[in-house]
Amino acid sequence: MILIVDDTPENIISLKKVLEKNGFEVDTASSGEEALKKILNRSYVLIILDVQMPGMDGFEVAETISGFSKAKETAIIFLSAASANVNLITRGYSSGGLDYISKPVDMNVLLLKVKTFYRIYEQSRALNKMQETLREEIEYRKEAERKKDEFISIASHELKTPMTSVKGYIQLLERSIEKNDIETTKARLSKVQNQIEKLNNLIADLLDISKIESGKLKLNKKHFQFDALVEDVLEILQQSHPDVTFIKKGSFEGKIYGDDIRIEQVILNFMTNALKYAPDSNEIHINSRREGDHAYFSVKDFGIGMAEENKDKVFNKFYRIEETSERFQGLGIGLYICKEIIELHQGEIGVNSQPGEGSEFYFTLPLNTEQDENI
Ligand code: ADP
C-alpha cells in the first residue's frame, strides 16, 4: 500500500489515479498530521510525500516517522521543488529508501521509481522469509539432535539397569548352586528371567523404532478373535498383578482382520502404562464394543492423568510429560509405536484424560474391509 501525502487535492487525485491504474493500492492524507496518524496505525511500503505543506512539512513528517517501528521498511519519495534539501533529511532517516522527484511531477519517472521501490521491498521480504525459514529449520534440527542425545542417554540407562541386575543375580546363583540350595536357585532364576524379559522388550521397542524410520514395519494380517486376544492379555497381567482388579466392560465378539501380535502389543502397552501411571489405584477398566463400522477398545486408569496440551504430544516419538518424567521410568516410544501400528490398520488412536483423575487410552479398528468376516 502506498500513502500519498499532499495538501493539494488535485495532486492527490491525479497521483492516485495513475498509481491505481498501474495496480497499486493507494491511501491518502491531506496533511502531515493526518499522515502521521495513518502511519502509526499501519505499515506502508512507500510514502509519496509533498515537501511543502502548511503546518507540518514533508521533512518534518519524515524525521518523525524515522522513529516509528511501523515505518522501519517504508521508503519515501519526496515531491519537492528543490532537490538540495532532500540530502539533508537522508542522514536522519534510516529507512527502506529515500528518493525525490521535482515538481511538476513526471508521471513516468514517478512510476518507474515506485516500481523499483516495490521490487526492492518484495525482494527484501522474500529474503526475510527465507531467513526465517532457515532459522526455524536450524532450530528444528537442533531440537531433533537434542532429543536424540537425550534418548540415547535414557536408553543406555534403561538397558544398563536390567543388565546390572542380571549380573548380580548370576553371582548369587553361583553361590546358591554351590550350596545346592534348589529353592533359592529357582527364585533367583525367575528374577533373572524377569530382567531378561525387560531387556527383550526394550530391544524389541528399539528395533520397532528403526523399522518405523525405514518404513519396514509391516503387518502380518489374518482373521483373529478380538475378544479372545483381550482375555489372553488380561490373564497374563492378572497373574503378574494379583492385587489389581481388571474390570472388563462389554466385548467385541467378532473377528478382526489384522496383525494379532501387533494389536496385542498395543493392548499390552496401554495396560502397562495404566499400571505404571496409576501407582495409587488398583482398578483398571477395559472396554470393548462394536461402534458402527469399527471396533472400539479402551483402557481406563485412575492415575495421574494429563493436561489437555499433552494429549496429542504423548504419541510423538521420544515425548514424555516433563513434570512426571523424573518419577516414572520410560523411553517415550511405546505410544509412538502403538500409533504407527493402529494407523497401519487404518484405525484411530487417542486419549481422554483429566489431570489427577486418570486417562483412557483408546483405539478403533475398521471393520468394513472386504476381508472382514464380522459376525
Ligand atoms: P514411556 O511410558 O516409556 O515414557 P510411552 O510412549 O508409553 O512412553 O508414553 C509417553 C508418555 O505419555 C509417558 O512418558 C507419560 O508421560 C505419558 N503417559 C502414557 N500413558 C499414560 C497414562 N496412562 N497416564 C498418564 N500419562 C501417561
From TrEMBL:
UniProt keyword list: Coiled coil, Kinase, Membrane, Phosphoprotein, Transferase, Two-component regulatory system
The superkingdom of the source organism is Bacteria
Output the Pfam families linked to this UniProt entry.
HATPase_c, HisKA, Response_reg
Please list the GO terms describing molecular function: histidine phosphotransfer kinase activity; phosphorelay sensor kinase activity
Any idea where the Histidine kinase domain is?
A: 154-369
Q: Which PROSITE patterns match?
A: HIS_KIN, RESPONSE_REGULATORY
Enumerate the catalysed reactions.
Answer: ATP + protein L-histidine = ADP + protein N-phospho-L-histidine
Q: Which GO terms describe its cellular component?
A: plasma membrane
Coiled coil (residue ranges) = 182-209
Under Enzyme Commission nomenclature, its number is 2.7.13.3
Question: 4-aspartylphosphate: which positions carry it?
Answer: 50
Residues in Response regulatory domain copies? 1-118
Q: Which PANTHER family match?
A: OSMOSENSING HISTIDINE PROTEIN KINASE SLN1, TWO-COMPONENT HISTIDINE PROTEIN KINASE
* Official protein name in the record: histidine kinase
**Which organism is the protein's source?**
Chryseobacterium taklimakanense
